[in-house]
Design brief:
- With about 210 residues, the protein is an alpha+beta fold.
- It contains five helices and eleven strands; from the N terminus they run βαβββαββββαβααββ.
- The longest helix has 15 residues.
- The chain is elongated and about 80 Å long.
């Protein structure tokens, strides 16, 4: 079992030579079980012979790295397991950078939604009706985008307030009614009926034919 922890250059317990410090080495703590590493004279068995099948510390290191014994208090302790033997592994900064993991891939941008009439681009936060850009406020855009993303689904006013305005919003269904009326005006006479009123419930979006 291996545990790895990166330390700052000033956290080593032993002083570094001036030449090493000038290269801004990073100290990397690699904790290994006693069976993994060649015991030091202080921890070797009474006869001084290494554990059969033990591995030399040097064999665990990359080329150019050096090591120092790690203080016991800096090593992790596992319940029910014997104490671990640890080493401070000094790796040149340029070598550590070369072996660093590649950066995580950026998440994909949300794809545009809508139909042949109304198009919503969530990444650019733009909305169009038959190619005509709509000048929408932040909440108008959020409301239209939510309705268009779920065509034919009936949303209650409370659901829309929670989803679009958020849980902390103080208001009632009248707020939704006002914003729906504004959206209908901006969609224009030919497409205002795309946002359908469901009596005593709420609203749904029905794509125009």
């Amino acid at each position: 079992m291996t545990n790895v922890r990166t330390l700052t250059a000033g956290s080593a317990t032993a002083p570094l030579p001036a030449a090493s410090a000038a290269h801004a080495h990073r100290h990397r703590l690699r904790a290994v079980t006693p069976d993994e590493a060649h015991p030091s004279p202080a921890t070797a068995p009474a006869g001084g012979a290494p554990h059969p099948g033990a591995v030399s510390v040097a064999e665990l290191l990359d080329s150019g790295a050096t090591w120092l014994p790690a203080p016991q208090h800096s090593l992790p302790a596992l319940p029910g397991r014997p104490p671990m033997v640890g080493y401070l592994v000094l790796v040149p900064a340029e070598q550590a950078a070369a072996t660093a993991a590649p950066p995580a891939a950026a998440p994909e941008a949300p794809a545009p939604t809508g139909d042949a009439i109304v198009r919503i681009d969530p990444e650019r936060r733009t909305a169009q009706v038959q190619g005509r850009p709509l000048d929408l406020t932040y909440l108008e855009f959020e409301l239209l985008a939510h309705l268009v993303a779920h065509p034919h689904r009936v949303h209650t006013r409370d659901q829309l307030v929670t989803t679009v305005w958020g849980y902390g919003h103080v208001g009632d269904g009248r707020t939704v009614d006002v914003h729906v009326a504004r959206l209908r005006r901006k969609l224009g006479a030919a497409h205002r009926s795309s946002i359908v009123t469901v009596r005593r419930v709420g609203y749904k979006y029905v794509p125009s034919v």
